[in-house]
Amino acid sequence: MSSQFGNKIRTLREQQNLLLRQVASILEMDTAQLSKIERGERQAKKETVLKIAVILKVKDDELLTLWLADQIYDVVKDEKNALKAMMVAEEKVEYLKTHKQK
Amino acid sequence: MSSQFGNKIRTLREQQNLLLRQVASILEMDTAQLSKIERGERQAKKETVLKIAVILKVKDDELLTLWLADQIYDVVKDEKNALKAMMVAEEKVEYLKTHKQK
DNA sequence: ATTACATTTGCCAAATAATGTCAAGTCAAA
DNA sequence: TTTGACTTGACATTATTTGGCAAATGTAAT
Description:
Two copies of one chain form a homodimer.
Chain A: H1 4-15, H2 20-27, H3 31-38, H4 46-55, H5 60-76, H6 82-98
Helix pairs in contact in A: 1-5, 2-3, 4-5
Chain A binds a DNA duplex through helix 3.
């Protein structure tokens, strides 16, 4: 299963009839690179995600969420404690969220 | 806030009156290195986690879960979409879990 | 205050991983 | 069979992580 972020931006791009090379050129990146990102073979940089959101006219958050989820998945895949670990991590995030210190 | 894995193993080590240098020597690793791991300044390798579980006489899974949670936290910290992304990632893990293909 | 020992810190070299780039490859439509 | 879109693989470059050492700090006992 490929990346959710990649699938999303590929779908959006196709819906808007944009070519890889067109989007890549706006991003000032190699076409091959973008192809790999769309297929989940490479991770985009956060900065790139933001630019893509503008180009494809979607909200930052929509793409950022999928992009982050891919990264999380990367670290937990193949780990049998994945779900438990995610819950532990969630609790920590939630805890820090309410107790606003860094 | 330091790492949950680090806190855990430091606590366990102290409860058992073991010195950093003793544990480090069993692990065949630099004392400074282990000190950094306990304080969350460095990530242990999975293999090291397993060895530590044996040394400190706790279940693998207990440590592995905390260790994984730390890594997840690392990728999501400072991201405002952290919680949403974790939920998305969880769904993917759960989905793949029930539909057993890789 | 001095010693002895445990831990921490800072630094840097070595190892490892991620990225960018290019050229050649596949594939489908015209 | 030519063209254009995309993919693949290889490689050099760059960035990040790690391991190891020496010096620094902390702490308790003498």
